[in-house]
Amino acid sequence: MDIKIINETLENIDAQAVITFIVNKNFNHTWVKHKKILENVNFKAESEDGILLAENNHVYIGCENLQPDELRLAAAKAFKLLRQTSYKSVKIGSYVEETNIESMGALIEGFVLGSYEFTKYKSKTEPFNLQEIIISTENYNQSKVSFETLIGVKDNAQIIANAANYAKEIVNTAPYDYTPIQMAEDALKLSAIEGVTCEIFDEKFLEKEKMGAFLAVNRASVHPPRLIHLTYKPKEKPKRRVVFVGKGLTYDSGGLSLKPSDYMVTMKADKSGGAAVMAILKGAAELRLPFEIHAIIGATENMIGANAYKPDDILRAKNGKTIEVRNTDAEGRLVLADCLVYAQELRPDLLIDMATLTGACVVALGEYTTGVMGHNEKLKHELFRAAAKSGELVNALSFNRYLKKLLKSTVADISNISSSRYGGAITAALFLDNFIEEEYKDKWLHLDIAGPAFVEKDWGYNQSGASGAGVRMNLYWLMLQNQNEDKQ
Ligand code: BES
Ligand code: ZN
Ligand code: ZN
């Protein structure tokens, strides 16, 4: 599907159908051509309402305001209605105030995000007819925003939304097909992008590097583990080095501390952090951002078997710290511990890890929100600003000294679970904190995406299943950092 911006009034654009947004229930606006019909069929034009007037070749969508995320929603809704029709082309006005290029980006993201479907395992799929969406520039004041700028905004929006869709496809893929080796193969494919290289490390490397925590989690799996290291280097001298680390559990059965059956379903999504960091690297490279970016993924399954690691085992991580295993289902933090130690050897200016780490984070913030943890308040606020622009929901969960004490072990340096049932998202992050060197404490953020990474019902412009959580907010953040450095 092609999205075009054309320097013409909507009237003068040739297409089979038209999309109109009814903003704040204003049926009297000149945009609304079929006021009578809409009133007759009792169309309310509430936010996320949509109707297809087939005889008039017109789609109307309710929209509370013209804020970017409202436009993402409206565009995705319009796409959903058009998906079932046989129209090949559709046109839409530019629903933005004069110079608001963020809204233009959001509109395009909405179409691309809304167009995602997971059909890999369906024998039959509905034919897809829509070939082009044409956006008119008529509302733009082109003495303030050039046509070239708009095209740039469009290209970036497509890159960002496609990156999120790329992560969704990985996460949705069944665990039988998506093994650590498959993840490594997909990562390798990204090296076709200019500036991207990929290194894949197997269990021998993990042994050599003394990554005893990561290896223990893998032990009962028939699939060998992989440490995936993707690098993107821009053409010019990079402004800074950003390292992303992702939890890539291609399946989490819980291990010997086995999950109850109802909780095991959806655990194919435990690779969402890994998928997100791959997607961020892909997006950043395609955006040609002037940063050196690394994506490190710890890919393994967490299974049961005679060879499985056990509660009571004591593991030694790459940095030499010993870990008492009290629950084999708290495996993500073990894999991340070793990967974070590896990541710090790259001497990052910024270190972000992403993981579906705890059910507790979902209890704390609900299914739709990412939990953000770390020591540096300024970094968190920068990320929050970017997340707001991207439309992703985030909230902070703060550390405190009392929770930190709950990870004490009598037999090892630290226990892999807290001694209290409360505050589990934060204690998991505090576990990771034990593997962050003093020098990097203020450069590190931990994002727990256990809620939004995979939701088993549609929400907003997200389909049931994977949502690509964390991808858009981080790409927006990188773009913001780039703008800020330009100003300095
Ligand atoms: N992968 C899970 C966390 C999870 C739960 C992700 C629900 C997505 C949805 C993680 O490995 C896990 O099992 N965590 C345990 C930790 C506990 C044993 C301390 C949890 O949250 O119950
Ligand atoms: Zn687990
Ligand atoms: Zn897990």
Written overview of the protein:
This protein is elongated. The strands form 4 sheets. It has an 8-stranded mixed sheet with strand order 7-8-10-9-13-17-14-15, with helices on both faces. The chain has a 6-stranded mixed sheet with strand order 1-6-5-2-4-3, with helices on one face. The chain contains 15 helices and 19 strands. It has 2 domains: 161 residues, Leucine Aminopeptidase, subunit E, domain 1; 310 residues, 3-Layer(aba) Sandwich (Aminopeptidase). The chain has 488 residues and is an alpha/beta fold. A hairpin with a 5-residue loop joins strand 11 and strand 12. The chain is 35% helix and 20% strand. It starts with a strand and ends with a helix. The longest helix is centred in the first third of the chain and has 26 residues. Ligand BES binds next to helix 11.
What structural keywords apply?
19 strands; single chain; 488 residues; binds ligand BES; Aminopeptidase; Leucine Aminopeptidase, subunit E, domain 1; eight-stranded mixed sheet; 15 helices; 2 domains; alpha/beta; binds zinc ion; six-stranded mixed sheet
